[in-house]
Design goal:
three-stranded antiparallel β-sheet, 10 strands, 407 residues, 17 helices, alpha+beta, Cytochrome p450, five-stranded mixed β-sheet, 49% helix
Length: 407
């Protein structure tokens, strides 16, 4: 067991957040699992273990389907945080079977591959318009001008949220996702609670309107979805699912876009290759997701004692699977620190795995490819205006902005 002060891993250190990959290499060299006292978690840095544990049913995103807080040796969240936990705990991401199975099955009836595929023309058109705006101004902030408005508009369009109502969506999402960081502050919790209340109240009104007057949007589809046992989503499950889809679409795709372009600017040979051959876009999307994934850490509770490389991890412990480290594991990826847009064998786990595999992964890929294609075609001289600053967040890792110029 390594002492905390013996590790380069420090999720509150700006230098580490800026470049965690050397610390990940150290963790992988130390072994398959390391206890990290500051967060009372077991860090798992290697690809094979992370991939296997994501599918291991002895672990769970929650424990409350089997244990009380007291039985599990944990303290219940403060009552004042209840609105956030009500919202969070009824979404697919933080549920286990049988509830997870039922909700995912019902959501999948509305969130079909055909539905996503039909969005392609809209996504491409919107990406083109956003890039045209950037070009017309000679540049700007790639985050606020292209990366952010694209997925926000797409998922809002899917859900049927009117354009006039979309301004608060991104701030609500950012405030709620602050709670996914390690040891969030009380101020972070207060913002998340306020956003949870406001977002839920808005969606409750929208759902009521769609019950009276259904459309062809995703919320109407989820209201109508049922299975052979006539199971339906409860109102809270509808609200939590809509928020989850919005949050995942906003945070993951936005950060993947700016992280990806920052990586391309730092690797001009790869950017030149991509500009010369746009057929590389699909493999470039996968490689950029691997190279600097927006979700660095994913937590699971140990529901039944497990053993990793001779170390027994007891029930009640928490495991932190390091996606960023797993995606740079040399046992799986040749020269993992090298950005290679032609990488053919690329089993990255940026979209997770197992029953919690990202339901929105096909949509994210369409959005990332559309914005990349539009920027390559319409802004072929795009250059970095100045080096960006990183957000202080580690778990959901991204940039404060990405200033670019179009010559």
């Amino acid at each position: 067991m390594a002492a905390a002060d013996d590790l380069a891993f420090d999720p509150w250190d700006p230098a580490f957040v800026s470049d965690p990959y050397p610390a990940y290499a150290e963790l992988r060299d130390r072994g398959r699992v390391t206890y990290y006292e500051p967060t009372d978690q077991w860090l798992v840095p290697r690809h094979a273990d992370v991939s296997a544990l994501l599918r291991d049913r002895r672990l769970g995103r929650t424990y409350q389907h089997r244990f009380t807080h007291e039985d599990f040796g944990r303290t219940a969240p403060p009552p004042e945080h209840e609105p956030f936990h009500t919202l969070n705990d009824h979404g697919m991401l933080d549920l286990e079977p049988p509830d997870h199975t039922r909700i995912r099955r019902l959501v999948s009836k509305a969130f079909t591959p055909r539905t996503v595929e039909q969005l392609k023309p809209y996504v491409r058109k919107l990406a083109g318009e956003l890039v045209d705006g950037l070009v017309a101004h000679g540049g700007g902030d790639l985050l606020t001008d292209v990366a952010e408005p694209l997925p926000v508009a797409v998922i809002a369009e899917m859900l049927g949220i009117p354009e006039s109502d979309r301004a608060p969506l991104r701030p609500w999402s950012a405030d709620i996702c602050g709670m996914y960081e390690l040891s969030p502050s009380e101020d972070t919790a207060a913002r998340a609670v306020r956003a949870s209340n406001e977002f839920s109240a808005y969606l409750r009104e929208l759902i009521a309107a769609r019950r009276k007057d259904p459309g062809d949007d995703l919320i109407s589809g989820m209201i109508a979805a049922h299975d052979e046992d006539d199971d339906r989503l409860t109102e809270q499950e509808l609200i939590s699912t809509a928020v989850l889809l919005l949050n995942a679409g906003h945070e993951a795709t936005v950060n993947a876009t700016v992280n990806g372009w920052w990586a391309l600017f730092r690797n001009p040979d790869q950017l030149a290759a991509l500009r010369a051959d746009h057929s590389l876009i699909p493999s470039a999307v996968e490689e950029l997701m691997r190279y600097d994934t927006p979700l660095q850490l994913f937590e699971r509770w140990v529901l039944d004692e497990i053993e990793i490389d001779g170390t027994t991890i007891p029930r009640g412990a928490e495991i932190a699977m390091l996606f960023g480290s797993a995606n740079h594991d040399p046992e799986v990826f040749a020269s993992p620190e090298r950005l290679d847009l032609t990488r053919a064998d690329n089993p990255h786990i940026s979209f997770s795995a197992g029953i919690h595999y990202c339901i929105g992964a096909p949509l994210a890929r369409i959005e990332l490819a559309a914005s990349m294609g539009a920027l390559l075609e319409r802004a072929p001289t795009l250059t970095l205006a100045r080096e960006p600053e990183r957000k202080p967040n580690f778990v959901i890792r991204g940039l404060e902005g990405l200033s670019v110029e179009v010559g």
